[in-house]
């Protein structure tokens, strides 16, 4: 018998999507949502989940595109921690950079997500945005009332009885729900269900927005993109001359350009110097991000940025143990906060994400699935061209990292 918890996240835009500018109210006073501890540095810990996970994913997939949502995976782990106990719970909280279980750090984590969910449900005049959770439960299996109550009150989760004895019917029910919530962008998140499933938990986010200043499609032309010194592909290169947020990080040997979206959100594009990608990756942390955002200056130059799409799919049960979350995937898992059954562990945890960047903005979707199983400075020129591998980060309110990625080879690039 299996307990599958599935988490999906989708961010997209009509002509091009941006990110979670979740408290932008056109013409009105906006209420600030507190910074989530899972995506920032916590004073009591040196752990930095977002960047530690990025480096682990990059190490597991060398020389490949990387794109994922720290928000989706963080909320996933936070919800799992509600049902975890003993060392299983401690490993999750430690990985997220929180203090001792039951302490103020844990409560702050859940309350921050709760406030975020409430804020995102407020109506918006200039964007479409939704964030939510749902549980699909096998009626014959008893899920603890305390867990369900907490999921409903803290994470505002909907619950649906589901006939897992008919896997195809259950799979269609869940996928139809996810497709509806993500406007069809994630249509087949659940695959290969069987009659042993007892619960599926879905987390979704949907967002639409645009660049603050769009690129003119008439200026987009095919240009060389140097995947490696030996491999060159042709990509559609967008071009726009404007004033941009810019800095030259001489310590990490990279240039950083900030492009604002409509709403309180920014995309950061990080271009390492030739041969310096590994140094930049190793130097990524919350303090680096804060320094970049603080030291940005406005500079006018010609920006060349590929119109690209990339996607990533990750088996997180193979990656998270490297960050200290081990027991949950083994016979040592203690998930007795979910159910009376003591022999439950996570057998699979999948995260999928896609991103598209075009003249109007950015489209991004992501989904995370987990399966629980009963065990058996100075610009040197007036031009910056992103024509070699670079990093991309989407930041909300200058602090919360919603997406993080590495573009090695933009999809659709033709060999030149």
UniProtKB/TrEMBL annotation:
<dbReference type="GO" id="GO:0004867">
    <property type="term" value="F:serine-type endopeptidase inhibitor activity"/>
</dbReference>
<dbReference type="InterPro" id="IPR042178">
    <property type="entry name" value="Serpin_sf_1"/>
</dbReference>
<feature type="domain" description="Serpin">
    <location>
        <begin position="51"/>
        <end position="410"/>
    </location>
</feature>
<dbReference type="InterPro" id="IPR000215">
    <property type="entry name" value="Serpin_fam"/>
</dbReference>
<comment type="similarity">
    <text>Belongs to the serpin family.</text>
</comment>
<dbReference type="InterPro" id="IPR023796">
    <property type="entry name" value="Serpin_dom"/>
</dbReference>
<dbReference type="InterPro" id="IPR036186">
    <property type="entry name" value="Serpin_sf"/>
</dbReference>
<dbReference type="GO" id="GO:0005615">
    <property type="term" value="C:extracellular space"/>
</dbReference>
<dbReference type="InterPro" id="IPR042185">
    <property type="entry name" value="Serpin_sf_2"/>
</dbReference>
<dbReference type="InterPro" id="IPR023795">
    <property type="entry name" value="Serpin_CS"/>
</dbReference>
<dbReference type="Pfam" id="PF00079">
    <property type="entry name" value="Serpin"/>
</dbReference>
<protein>
    <submittedName>
        <fullName>Serpin family A member 5</fullName>
    </submittedName>
</protein>
<feature type="signal peptide">
    <location>
        <begin position="1"/>
        <end position="18"/>
    </location>
</feature>
<keyword id="KW-0732">Signal</keyword>
């Amino acid at each position: 018998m299996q307990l599958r918890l599935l988490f999906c996240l989708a961010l997209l835009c009509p002509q091009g999507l941006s990110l979670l500018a979740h408290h932008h109210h056109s013409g009105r006073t906006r209420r600030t949502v507190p910074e989530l501890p899972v995506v920032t540095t916590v004073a009591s810990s040196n752990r930095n989940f977002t960047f530690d996970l990025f480096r682990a994913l990059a190490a597991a997939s060398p020389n490949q595109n990387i794109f994922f949502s720290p928000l989706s995976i963080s909320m996933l782990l936070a919800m799992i921690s509600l049902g975890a106990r003993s060392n299983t719970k401690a490993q999750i909280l430690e990985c997220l950079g929180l203090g001792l279980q039951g302490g103020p750090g844990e409560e702050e984590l859940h309350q921050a997500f709760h406030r975020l969910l409430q804020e995102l449900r407020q109506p918006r005049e200039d964007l479409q945005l939704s964030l939510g959770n749902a549980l699909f439960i096998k009626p014959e299996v008893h899920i603890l009332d305390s867990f369900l109550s907490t999921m409903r009150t803290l994470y505002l989760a909907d619950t649906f009885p589901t006939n897992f004895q008919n896997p195809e019917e259950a799979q269609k029910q869940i996928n139809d729900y996810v497709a509806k919530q993500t406007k069809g962008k994630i249509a087949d998140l659940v695959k290969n269900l069987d009659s042993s499933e007892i619960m599926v938990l879905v987390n979704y986010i949907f967002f639409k927005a645009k660049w603050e200043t769009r690129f003119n499609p008439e200026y987009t032309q095919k240009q060389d993109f140097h995947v490696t010194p030996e491999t060159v592909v042709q990509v559609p290169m967008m071009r726009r001359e404007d004033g941009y947020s810019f800095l030259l990080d001489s310590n990490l040997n990279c240039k950083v350009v900030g492009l604002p979206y409509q709403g309180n959100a920014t995309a950061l594009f990080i271009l390492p110097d030739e041969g310096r990608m590994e140094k930049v990756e190793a130097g990524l942390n919350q303090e680096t991000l804060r320094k970049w955002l603080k030291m940005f200056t406005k500079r006018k130059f010609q920006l060349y940025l590929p119109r690209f799409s990339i996607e990533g799919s990750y088996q997180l049960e193979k990656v998270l143990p490297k960050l200290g979350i081990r027991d949950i995937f083994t016979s040592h898992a203690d998930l007795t906060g979910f159910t009376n059954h003591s022999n439950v562990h996570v057998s699979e945890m999948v995260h999928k994400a896609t991103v598209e960047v075009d003249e109007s903005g950015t489209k991004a979707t992501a989904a995370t699935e987990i399966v629980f199983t009963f065990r058996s400075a100075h610009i040197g020129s007036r031009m910056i061209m992103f024509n070699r591998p670079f990093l991309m980060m989407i930041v909300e309110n200058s602090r919360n990292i919603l997406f993080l990625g590495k573009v090695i080879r933009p999809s659709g690039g033709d060999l030149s």
